[in-house]
Specification:
The chain is mostly helical and 111 residues long. It is 54% helix and 0% strand. It is globular and about 35 Å long. The termini are far apart. The C terminus is likely disordered.
Length: 111
């Protein structure tokens, strides 16, 4: 999970957006379970997850980065506007535009 109460990679952008990583983590945890599938063996890429990755990749490229960072992915997930991630972020008050303005200059330059 990107947002982890134990200081995961998304904590900095979540905090920068004025949110509590613990609250976002708890909210996501109430909606997700490991279920009967073995997710580590096979990950199903939904149309929403593919769109979130595409948004994140485009943002990363626009900012001159050679990688997709957590803030790119969080913004991508939120901008998709559907699915568990978007719902959790929206309900927590996540504002992709505000985060985008504060993190655009934190990317690693292309090599």
């Amino acid at each position: 999970m990107l947002v982890d109460a134990r200081a995961g990679c998304a904590d900095a952008p979540v905090v920068a957006a004025g949110l509590s990583p613990e609250a976002v983590h708890r909210s996501a945890g109430t909606r997700l379970s490991t279920g009967a599938s073995q997710a580590t063996e096979r990950i199903a890429w939904t149309p929403y997850s593919r769109k979130a990755i595409a948004i994140a990749e485009a943002r990363s490229e626009r900012n001159g980065s050679d990688r997709i960072d957590c803030d790119d992915l969080l913004i991508g997930l939120a901008q998709v506007g559907r699915g568990v991630a978007a719902n959790v972020l929206t309900e927590a008050g996540f504002d992709p535009a505000a985060l985008d303005a504060t993190t655009a200059d934190t990317h690693s330059p292309r090599r």
